[in-house]
Write a structure and sequence with these properties.
Elements: H1 3-33, H2 42-58, E1 62-66, E2 80-86, E3 97-103, H3 112-115, E4 119-121, E5 124-126, H4 134-150, E6 157-163, H5 174-181, E7 186-189, E8 192-193, E9 199-203, E10 205-214, H6 230-242, E11 251-260, E12 270-279, H7 282-296, E13 305-314, H8 321-336, E14 343-346, H9 351-356, E15 362-363, E16 367-371, E17 379-381, H10 385-400
Parallel strand pairs: 3-6, 3-7, 7-15, 8-16, 9-14
Antiparallel strand pairs: 1-2, 2-6, 4-5, 5-17, 10-12, 10-13, 11-12, 16-17
Helix pairs in contact: 1-4, 1-10, 4-10, 8-10
């Protein structure tokens, strides 16, 4: 039997197993959606982590549980999980290490699961986190279980990462994500597919800046000429920075916060701007950073100075030749189970950005089809579950062996 025929046979088996698994998947989804696990609901996130840890252990994964200290304001997140399972094909023989990543937290407050419980209407499931990201986490676990039952171990290592704080930008788990990703060959994001079924080939990066504008106070009625108005300079800067929109494709600049002054009878001595930049490439983020600094060097008001601080940077998940090759594997598997797989770029960020920032090729949106994330209408198409699990399992198997067609 030639390689394409063997792959078709494997996919058929994966799809059969995924269809058999669907009732259990829905039971598990109801269980996880019933747990309030907001980003700062540490106990709820840890309850989800307990459940996932048991599931990984039954599949032969060695699981490391990682706790984090409280934030500077005393708020707690739950733990992260890193599960590892060695395969039968060492790296020296062409085996690859593959990372599957999803998050256990949601955007919803405690009490939401009881107020808006999991339900299924026709072919659609509803509930807090049903799509973002409990449906995706479960798809990843189901794909790993199918691979285990099939005996597909032509890989060096599988790594399953479940994080507790993606919805607030992964402040606690970022270092762990980057450390884990640095030692793998491929990253697979378990966010659910777009509403039209597309996977995600690219995510914009985000850079946050603070501009501190320093002028000189003076009596506004008696000697305003002795002052240097920081509020006026902030206004000039706001106009200049907003005008950067449209200069580069897929780049947005937003002056989201402006603060200035305390009294109307004082020439304003200080002001502050908060700016968000989103861009599809690291190169574009660097271009905008230079433009912001150039604008700050010329505030338009004599006597005013401007300090620029970059507060945060979430790197872009770029559309690269390596991620396109991963997409090719996924598309071939999707066609074999009867679906066409598109690829989307999005402005939203996630843990896949941090994985991509380490230089690892990433494909995201590999869970079932869902939508209306972060809203009371959040949904998951349960008819998409078997095909998406089968495609994910086959993608893992294809990437695991560097010599696979």
């Amino acid at each position: 039997m030639n390689a394409p025929a063997r792959r078709q046979e494997r996919l058929g088996h994966f799809l059969e197993l995924a269809r058999t698994h669907r009732p259990r998947y829905l039971d598990d989804l109801e269980r996880l959606v019933s747990i309030d696990s907001g980003s700062y609901s540490a106990d709820g996130v840890n309850e989800v982590a307990d459940w996932i840890e048991r599931r990984l252990g039954r599949m032969g994964f060695d699981v490391e549980r990682v706790g984090f200290p409280p934030s500077s304001d005393g708020r707690r997140t739950g733990d992260a999980l890193v599960g590892r399972r060695r395969g039968g094909l060492p790296e020296a023989s062409g085996g690859r290490r593959i990372l599957l990543a999803g998050h256990m937290d949601t955007v919803f407050e405690d009490g939401t699961a009881a107020a808006r419980p999991f339900r299924v209407e026709g072919s659609t499931a509803y509930g807090p986190g049903v799509s973002d990201d409990k449906g995706g986490l479960l798809a990843g676990l189901a794909a790993l279980e199918i691979l285990t039952r099939h005996g597909a171990d032509a890989y060096d290592e599988l790594v399953f990462l479940a994080t507790p704080d993606e919805e607030i930008g992964s402040p606690a788990s970022r270092a762990l994500i980057e450390r884990t990703a640095a030692h793998v060959h491929y990253g697979l994001g378990l966010e659910c597919a777009r509403e039209n079924g597309d996977v995600v080939i690219a995510r914009k990066g985000v850079a946050d800046f603070r501009l501190t504008v320093t002028g000189r106070a003076a009596h506004a009625g008696i000697e305003p000429e002795r002052g240097a108005n920081a509020a006026l300079a902030a206004a000039h800067l706001t106009v200049a920075l907003q005008a950067l929109n449209g200069h580069w494709e897929d780049v947005t600049v937003n002056v989201g916060v402006v603060r200035a002054g305390t009294r109307t009878n004082i020439v304003c001595p200080d002001a502050e701007l908060r700016i968000e930049v989103r861009a599809a490439t690291t190169t574009d983020i660097q271009r905008v950073t230079r433009a912001i600094r150039e604008a700050a060097d010329h505030p338009g008001v004599p006597g005013v100075t401007v300090e620029v601080e970059q507060l945060d940077l979430c790197p872009p998940m770029e559309d690269t030749p390596a991620s396109r090759r991963m997409l090719g594997h996924a598309r071939r598997a999707a066609l074999a189970v009867g679906i066409e797989l598109g690829a989307a770029a999005t402005g939203g960020v996630g843990d896949a950005n941090l994985i991509a920032g380490t230089g690892i090729p990433v494909l995201d949106g590999l869970g079932p089809v869902g939508g209306a994330d972060h809203t009371p209408q959040e949904w998951l198409d349960i008819t998409s579950v078997p095909q998406r699990i089968a495609v994910l399992a086959d993608l893992i198997a294809s990437l695991g062996d560097a010599g696979a067609p």
